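Q: What changes when adenosine-5'-[phenylalaninyl-phosphate] is included in the input?
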Amino acid sequence: MKDKLSKIKKDFESSLKKIADLDSLEELYNEYFSRKAGEMTNIMKSLKELSGEERKEMGALANTIKTAMEELFENSKKTLENNKWETLLETEKIDITQAKLPVERKGHLHPVTLVQNDLEDFFTSMGFMLLDGPELESEFYNFEAVNIPDDHPARDMQDTFYIKNRDNLVMRTHTSSVQVRAMQKYGAPLRMIVPGKVFRNEATDPRHEHTFHQLEGVVIDKNITFGDMKGVIERMVKHLYGEDTQVKLRPKFYPFVEPGVNGEVTCFLCKGSGCRVCKNTGWLEIFGAGMIHPNVLKAGNIDPKEYQGFAFGFGLTRLVMLKYGIEDIRHLESGNLKFLQQF
Ligand code: FA5
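A: The predicted holo structure follows.
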C-alpha cells in the first residue's frame, strides 16, 4: 500500500504540471477525490480492511499524502485563477485614448419619407393643416364626391383595384379622396395637404407604379384665384429644386376642377432633349391642379357662391425621382438595400 500511495502522489504531481486551465484541474481533482470513484477516495475506503497496527500506520501515511495532494491542488487553483484574471484584464483592456471608430448606420429614412417630411414642413409653415385619410376608401369619396359619377368615362383614367365582395370599397386611386372628407369636417376657409399612398391597376414602366405616393393640397377661401394656385405651386417646386426651375402648365380635364391643368418640369435625366424616362418629350408630368369644381364644394357642404378654391395633386414619388435623379420608379418600392443605402 505504501508503494501504491507514493505512485498516486507522483502521478498526481506530474498530471498537475500539465494542467493549464481550471476546468481540467477540476477534472483531475475528481479523478482522485470524487466521492464515488476517486483513486484516493478508494484508498481511504480500503483502509478499513487492514488489520489494527497496519491500519494505523497506513491511515496516518494516507492522510499525510492526501493533505499534501490537496495543498498542491489548492496552490494550482490559486495560480490558475490569478492567470485567468490577468488574461481577462489583458484581452478586455479598453484603450481610452483610441480615436472614435465610425458608427455603422443601422437604418435611415426612405427617400419618399425624406421629401414628404420636407414638404410637410414647407406647407405647415404656410399655415396648411396636415391631414390623413383611409387607403381603403369608399367609392363615394374616391369618385362621386369629386364629381366622377359611376358611368363617367373619367373613371377609366384611373384604373382601379376593387375589393372582392365589397361593392362600395376601392383602394384609393388618388389623395383627392380626402378633399370632401376634409371639407365636411372643417368647412371653409380651409388650407390643407394630404400626403399618402395611392393604388392603380397599372402596367408598370420607368415612370408608372401600381403603388405610389401623392401629395394633395386644397385651399378654399373668399377671392381665391388661379394666380394664387400658380404662385403656391411655383414656390413649392422652387423650394424643392432651386430658384431657376421652370414649371409648364397645360390645360387638362379633371372632373373635379374647372379649369384644370397638368404641370410638368424639365426632365431631370435628359435635361429636356428627350429620353425613355420622359418618353422623348423632354418634360415630366408631376402634378394635376385646378380651381375646385362647384359640385365638389357642394358635396363638402360649402357654398360655391361664397367660397372658391384650388386643389393640386403632386405625384410625390415623381418628385422624389426628380430630386435624386432616379431613372426608374420601380426601384423605390423594390426593397433593394443596395439602392436604398444611397440615401
Ligand atoms: C390625379 O390623381 C388627380 N387627383 C390630381 C389632381 C388633384 C388634379 C387635385 C386636380 C386637382 P393624375 O392621375 O394625373 O391626377 O395623377 C397626379 C400625378 O400623380 C401625376 O402628375 C403623376 O406625377 C403621378 N402619377 C400618376 N400615375 C402615376 C403612376 N402610375 N406612378 C407614379 N406616379 C403617378
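Observations recorded in class: The beta strands are 129-130, 136-138, 162-163, 166-171, 190-199, 211-221, 247-251, 257-266, 283-292, 308-315.
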